[in-house]
Design goal:
Layout lengths: L11 E3 L17 H13 L4 H8 L28 H23 L8 E4 L3 E4 L2 E4 L5 E3 L4 E4 L3 H7 L6 H20 L1 H9 L4 H30 L6 H11 L2 H9 L12 H14 L14
Parallel strand pairs: 1-2, 2-6
Antiparallel strand pairs: 3-4, 5-6
Helix pairs in contact: 1-2, 3-5, 5-7, 5-8, 6-7, 7-10, 8-10
């Protein structure tokens, strides 16, 4: 992936090394290693790690749509922006998503308000609750920020066997896709609808939301390559491999030996590849209506 000449985003907050402070009182006194294992298991099995962490540290748990009233802004962005290569890469990819979505929104007469991206190590506090490295990257609609611990990319390479810089870019573009859904009101509609559904029905709706974010990631890649020629030979395969590697069926098969489709929250490997490819090939948001599809 050609990224080194790209524009660096000014919307990166580097909180690495800032520390978390106290985790709150009244909760279980578990070791950091134990908490990480529990959260990793929750993330792999499709549970909401934020809720699990909230229970562990004595809170009632939060969801992506429930604000954390104790949240306070932490550590401002490092002066001059991040200096290491991993953070520099993230900054460039974020900047490219900003340019792409600004252009797409403007073509429809709308203004794109970009998200912030928070780099953290270990734990960080967000408006949606605690961000923990074991849960992987996530987007918080309450503060409109993407949270990522760069150690996740090591897991992507080693645990999920999805190496490559474009695979890493796909992860960021997927989370930015959730931000686009928030700006368009899609996420809010899904959250409201889930309140009136059974768990199985709610999971199915969440799958459609995640698959649309995959498709939006493909839309970004299409526009970015046409405008700035970012893709090199093998990059598309890296992205498709990453989408396949984090399918619910593949993760469940690896972690519990059996696949339970009704518990899916992100989509199967085949579904994730299909929708990422659809956005990548069409470059059109209109191709990403996962909610209209009879079966995504």
């Amino acid at each position: 992936m050609r990224w080194r000449e790209g524009r660096r985003s000014e919307n990166v907050e580097d909180r690495r090394g800032a520390g978390m402070g106290r985790m709150g009182g009244g909760g279980l006194r578990l070791g950091a290693g134990t908490i990480i294992l529990i959260l990793l298991g929750a993330w792999l099995l499709g549970a909401n790690p934020l809720q699990i962490l909230g229970l562990l540290v004595g809170g009632g748990g939060t969801t992506a749509q429930t604000p954390d009233v104790s949240y306070q802004e932490q550590a401002p962005p490092a002066a001059g922006g991040p200096k290491d290569e991993g953070a520099d890469f993230v900054s460039v990819v974020l900047g490219d998503t900003e340019d792409t979505w600004t252009e797409i929104f403007a073509s429809g007469g709308e203004r794109y308000a970009p998200p912030k991206l928070v780099l953290f190590s270990g734990m960080a506090r967000s408006a949606c609750g605690m961000a923990q490295s074991a849960m992987g990257p996530f987007y918080c609609p309450m503060d409109q920020k993407v949270y990522i611990d760069l150690d996740f990319y090591r897991d992507l390479r080693q645990r999920f066997r999805a190496p490559g810089d474009f695979a890493q870019a796909y992860v960021i573009a997927h989370e930015v896709g959730h931000h686009v859904q928030t700006l368009l009101g899609t996420s809010q509609k899904v959250h409201q609808a889930r309140q009136q559904m059974s768990e199985e029905q709610g999971n199915a709706l969440s799958v459609r939301l995640e698959l649309q974010a995959d498709c939006y990631a493909g839309v970004w890649a299409n526009h970015a390559d046409r405008a700035r020629s970012i893709l090199e030979q093998g990059d598309v395969e890296e992205g498709l491999n990453a989408a396949s590697a984090i399918g619910d069926d593949r993760i469940q098969r690896q972690t519990q030996g059996t696949v339970v489709p009704e518990s899916f929250t992100h989509g199967s490997s085949e579904q994730r590849v299909t929708w990422f490819r659809r956005g990548l090939e069409s470059g059109r948001m209109q191709s990403c209506d996962t909610f209209a599809a009879g079966s995504p």
